[in-house]
Amino acid sequence: MKIVYVLTRSDVIGGASVHLLDLAEGMLGLGHQVTILVGGSGVFFNYASDRGIDCVAVKHMVREVSPMKDVQCFFELASLIRQLRPDLIHAHSSKAGVLARLVAKRLSVPVIFTAHGWSFTDGVSKRSRTTYRCVERLMAAYSDKIITVSEFDRQLALVNKVGGAGSVVAIHNGVRLSAIRRIRKPLCLAPKLAMVARFDEQKDQLLLVSALARLKHLSWQCDLIGDGPLLAIVKQESYKKGISDRVRFTGARKDVPDLLAKADIFVLVSKWEGLPLTILEAMRAGLPVIASDVGGVAESVDHGKTGILVPRGNEDKLVDALSKLILSHELRDNYGRAGLNRFFDLFGFEAMLRKTIAVYDDVVRK
User: Are 147 and 359 in contact (CB under 8 A)?
Assistant: First the structure.
């Protein structure tokens, strides 16, 4: 099968980017032909090249709404897809999802869209939710199948009339096994927390910094891994709160598994989510997880067994959860072991790949 993937941005590496790279590599391993069309020519190309995946830059693809560039992008995508003559188009991320589906309809090519969390979910502003809901309802008619990364998002789509029960399928994210194992640290050392996320509107590193500032009396260290437009603001807040000597800003890193292997607790504080890959990577590393109870997060974190779920924006509950795991080595170890077992049972990469191929076969056959 000849597959073309379409992604909006190449200048950042986030959950959708990592998911797509894993998926494309998996399809290559099964003998399929794969090309990724992606906006710009940023760091994504380096990651793709390392995996032997063909990438083509779409110069007019931009994240922001730009009528002139969007029209140009439509014709640019159409030209590229005519040349590639794929059996199937699989789009990821919102802008790519809209344009790729319109092009696919124009060229009569089967098309699938994966929603890595809906933009009309709770936590997004009401005005934006209304706009995105209307757009996704319209675009559902141009989709042969819609894949959501959690059952939460599948139900959200159905409730909002974005596709029907037969056209929307949930396939949990899956990550590959890693040879890296967590380094067990002596009890006398301060537990190390880690959060892997871009510093942007969706994530809430500011809330985490505020919560940690209330736990100065405890021994801990924290790595905030990632970059983004709000990085400087969060750094400044850590100085204001007097914890800058205990919070390390690592920037974007390619060695995240190594960093997680050296951590003791994983934290993901968010305003909305799909099914975050970083949580699955933390479970793979045998880490207990503290995460905001948003989107499909509860489908990965078993509250009270593999970690602690905290209501969105609730600083007091976040402080309680952090305190509990910082103080108890036994609880960290129990949650971490249970999380690793849950990862093996539910979130292996092969299961995700197998289910995705089944959707591909169904769409192409029809």
Answer: yes
